[in-house]
Amino acid sequence: MLQVRPFDIEIGQHKVMLNIEEARERGLNAGDRVRVRTKGAATTAILDTTSGMVKLGEIGIFTEALKDLKDPSTVDILPAPKPASLCYIKSFMDKQKLSEDQIRSIVQDIVDNNLSDIELAAYITASYIHDMDSQEVEWLTKAMIETGERIHFDTHPVMDKHSIGGVPGNKVSLLIVPIVAAAGLLIPKTSSRAITGAGGTADLMEILAPVEFSAAEIKELTEKVGGVIVWGGATNIAPADDKLIKAEYALSIDPYSQMLASIMAKKGAVGADAVVVDMPVGPGTKLPTPEAGRTLAKDLIDLGERLGIRVECAMTFGGSPVGRTIGPALEVKEALTVLENKGGPNSLKEKSLSLAGILLEMGGVAGRGDGYSAAEEILTSGKALEKLKQIIEIQGGDPAVKSEDIVTGENCEDILAPVGGYVVAFYNKRLVELARIAGAPADKKAGVTIHKKMGERVKKGEPLISICSSSDWELESAVKDAKRQMPIVVEGMLLERYPRITEL
Question: For the whole model, what pTM was predicted?
Answer without folding.
Answer: 0.90
